[in-house]
Amino acid sequence: MSFTTDYLAQTRQILDLLDTVAVDRLVDRLVATRRLGGRIFFLGVGGSAANAAHAVNDFRKLCNFEAYAPTDNVAELTARTNDEGWETVFVSWLRTSRLSGRDMIFVLSVGGGDLARNISPNLVRAVQYAREVRATIVGIVGRDGGFTASMADACVIVPTVDTQTITPHAESFQSLLWHLLVSHPALKAAATKWESAAAA
After folding, report:
1. pTM of the model
2. Which helix (DSSP H) or strand (DSSP E) does residue 9 occupy?
């Protein structure tokens, strides 16, 4: 079997294994946050940071959420990293934004954070801080979900079907799943361009 055939077969397998109940729990939490007038803070590093930027656009434009990603402000991100350290960069940002119990942090991550192995400690610290202020914690993560899954109010774990392709599948399914969320009738508030053009 070629790599292409195998990779796409894995993708189909992951689709079949996804926990749709977990996705619906995520929808419910998002609906509740919007009803309260809460904000969403998307947190991710590496490829997941790029996904966070895209998700901010979609949730703002299509679902009428006030949404942000700390990684979009490279000046503040690098200043905080330089002056305070990588581990606390998200916590400092969230404190300045006055994260509260009405708000939500939405973690996009391959592993979900692991302090013991020093993997994404900034996500772990952010989740801990969100729990302190009673903000809602949700995530789309890979592997076993790490610290995020253990603390989240709602979390979708992208199943691992091959240990050699954990990262590409996890980051790909982040995109697939947030697009599902912004298309969900319980959340979608504005039409997407091509669909509205076709209808006209």
Report:
1. 0.95
2. helix 3-17
Residues 14-37, mean pLDDT to the nearest whole number: 98
3-state secondary structure 94-147: HHHCCCCCCCEEEEEECCCCECCCCECHHHHHHHHHHHHHCCEEEEEECCCCHH
> What φ, ψ does residue 80 adopt, rounded to 5°?
-65, -40
- pLDDT, one tens digit per residue, over 75-90 is 999 999 999 999 999 9
Domain ranges (residues) in the chain: 3-188
Q: Which CATH superfamily is domain 3-188 in?
A: Glucose-6-phosphate isomerase like protein; domain 1 (3.40.50.10490)
Q: Which residue has the tokens 């949404």?
A: 67
Strands 154-157 and 136-141: parallel
Calpha distance 160→153 (Å, rounded) = 21
